[in-house]
Amino acid sequence: MHTNRSQHRFIRRTVLAAAAFCSLALALPAVGVAADAAPGKCADDSGLTLPSGFCASLFADGVGHARHLVVAEGGVVYVNTWSGRYYGNDTPHAGGFLVALQDTTGSGKANVNERFGATVQSGGAGGTGIAIYKGWLYAELNDKILKYQLKKGTVLPGEASQVVVSGLPLGGDHPMHPFAIDANGDLYIDVATATNSCQEKNRTLKSPGIQPCTELETRGGIWRYDAKKVNQAFSPAGRYATGIRNAEGFGVDAIGHRIFVTQHGRDQLHTNWPDVIKNEDQEATLPSEEVLLLKQGGDYGWPMCYHDPFQQALVLAPEYGGDGKTAGVCALKTGPTAYFPAHWAPNGMVLYDQKQFPAHYQQGLFIAFHGSWNRAPYAQGGYNVVYQALSGDKASGKCEIFADGFAGADKSPGKAAHRPSGLAVGPDGALYVSDDVAGRIYRIVYRGGADGPGATVPCPSATDSPGPIGGAQARPPEGTHPDAGSATAGLTAPPGTTPAQVALGDRVYHGQVGGATCTGCHGSDAKGSPLGPDLTTNKWLWGNGSYAGIAATIAGGVAQPKNFRSPMPAMGGAQLSSDQVMAAAAYIWALNHPAASH
């Protein structure tokens, strides 16, 4: 699910396709389909194992690496797709990363398949997050959340996109930005961590945790913005909740105004701390995967804490002096609403609020588990969709295996045929599941009697034995990058300065320190915009590109720019200290002198 550094340099430049989107002369299904309406035909050709009475068909196939998806009121399914190193650098689709799918025949299969949005050629890398609010389609693209106006009677948006939020962090282990929008128009964005556990050297044996974890200033939590506004800029001030390593899935309750998020538990407890987490099987059983009830100002513990299913509590992490038993400060953090076996990777979640499924499944959570890698040498787990009933804000009983069989014969990251990633509920009550390996979209409906599905299959307990040893040791899909937590990794500091000054300059440039507005003209990736030049090409309109020359330009500003219409205010429009000016200059100089070039 991650890209390497060279790709990061490429994808940071977001350029949307300039051509206007075409409208299709295809009538949409009737708007406002009743929640318990007949769900249409089901070919039962998915190969999935489901509870009795349910039927799954292949709604679409081969759409690319399908991440999250959403279903419009008229029945059009919109999918956000992505491409990156995690997928073996295969060739992305030539069309846009966003896909519109529609069944106009009632067959249960999409006969309309149209693509739109940015392409690889225009600088896009796709994304995960997608949602619909008040007639607008919202989608993640690179470091932005965009919105497209949906037009009645058409499948594709008829106008160019608008930027809702820009400047979202891209680097490190978790560069994606899933999100959800509640009934009030509040936009909740997952800004996941750059590292596994905020170590001084990421994913490294016995490397201690950074004290305090500075990564939490801009990562590791949920940020809230206004979905109705445009041109909002990411900043630390937008943080809504903290201590969340990677919240890929959202379950929004439009009635009770609750928002649930998933939490990917950290990796490599035994591998990195064998003197503390001593049993090899604990690599496969610690920590829990979680569902959290999102609260403003909530702190859910990362990186200092992880959830131990055996103790049913948050436990202090070894990076911060934990011994595998002590709670310490974790007794003050907020624990999960529900927890699940370790490393299953909850990538998607939806609260089922329709009536097509039996009452047993209503107002509970469906969760798509992408599948584990960190249980080796024991058998991997997940690669399924489970159902978790709720009683108010808490889990009601054990979860149930709802849909299985995605992976095929081999449940492992590199060999699974399909891996569930996103979930959405249609207006007819059908449940849609996306697969980000081969790009399948599954559609699940209920065809059984009114009494319900009968017997269900409980999830394995989070404290079950991992079973016999039977697999090869595995490595993180994103690779092991000791400096993944550094926003300036790979940059060379100017002579006479330090990497710490470059890191401070990065924060000054992005408005996190000092209040400068550099990103407004030069972009969050410093690649330029119509208002200001690219600062990464070692081509200079003012000065000779020396460290001192860059500092002088920042301090004095540019009242009459040569090639751009907007003047550059002195000190970036702020009252920067001399140290901050020099740090910003060090950062700009370093952007033009990456370590790889030496």
Q: Any descriptors?
A:
598 residues, 9% helix, disordered N terminus, globular, single chain, mainly beta, 5-stranded antiparallel beta sheet, 5-stranded mixed beta sheet
Q: Could you please describe the fold and organization of this structure?
A:
The chain has 598 residues and is mainly beta. 9% of the residues lie in helices and 23% in strands. It is built from seven helices and 30 strands. The protein has helices at residues 5-11, 269-272, 282-285, 499-509, 518-522, 547-556, 578-591, and strands spanning 54-60, 66-71, 77-81, 98-102, 112-116, 130-133, 136-141, 144-149, 162-166, 179-181, 186-191, 221-226, 232-233, 239-242, 250-253, 258-263, 289-293, 305-308, 313-316, 338-340, 346-351, 365-369, 384-388, 390-391, 394-395, 400-403, 420-425, 431-435, 441-446, 457-458. Strand 6 and strand 7 form a beta hairpin. Helix 6 (547-556) crosses helix 7. The longest helix has 14 residues, at 578-591. The chain starts with a helix and ends in a 7-residue tail after the last helix. Mean pLDDT is 88; it is low at 1-37.
